[in-house]
Request: fold
Amino acid sequence: MALKILVRTPNHLGDCIMALPTINQVGEAHPGARVTLLAPRHLAPLFRPNPTVDEIIELAPEHVHGLMAVYKIKELIGKQGFDIGYILPPSFGAAAGFKLGGVKERIGYIADGRRLLLTKPLALPAPLNSKHRSELYFDLLRRGAGHEVAFHKPKLFLGDDDVRAGIDLLTGFGLPENEPYAAIAFRAVAESRRWGTTKYTELIKHLISQHGIKVVLIGSADDRPDGDAIAAATSTKEVINVAGKTSIREAAAILSRAKLFVGNDSGPAHLAAAVGAPVVVLSGADDPKATSPVAARKKLLYLDQLECISCEKNKCPVKGESHLRCMTGLPVDLVAAAAGDMLENQV
Reply:
């Protein structure tokens, strides 16, 4: 009888992309196994289709965190008799759900007081964040399987229907199918990672005037007002704001056909890299050694001379003129030059 393997995915878009090498290669590590993912509902579409994944169990938003989540996971998986569980989130609750759900072998990193809930508790590398998170997730698979498995960059699988949906969506906004465009994620959730609408507006004006390329703005529904402001300040004919207008797979399809992506270390940046887009990443509060998108073509821009760089804080604690200088100190001409180089040196 085939092994039954359960993988608990991370809870955020960027982390799920960084977990793709692990998910994509479970079948290589465990030939012939049946692979099930346990994933937050809004992220489950990322893994459809995926040739490794046989089933996806979705977690409703109210069952992702907390005590109720533990009991819901037990309810969802308890009768399925999973042999091996890879627990990618470092939370106590994720491990407790697998324990109560009867997963026989539970593999995860020692964190959040959960050592006794794991049958194979693995120590995190020291110092923390010394290894990229994508490889950190993948090491769970290597060490759990007990033999070497080759690491491959994150890859999101898109079907023809996905690509067609992205094309049709942009066509509906007046962008012809064969028109080249750059994609920009112009706003970050964390305040400490925001370059600002003014600078993005200047960058977009440069891309339009110097490279004759259209621009598609990517983001969530919360980002849409800022996207509308950027489009109005540049050119509504050359800039299309689809923030809040796409599904996660439509966004991936749009990014897959972009000549360039520009944005901070964020979910959209990881998504762009996973579908093969060239990326220019603006880094500040994030730690690029641990979380920068893994891309075949990438330019990473950050002010490494700052003593506070890569602080990993969501709000900048520095006051006065130096507030948010890791972002405000990145000049438009530097980003424009990196973007231009990417556009002019397409493979």
About this structure: The mean pLDDT is 94.
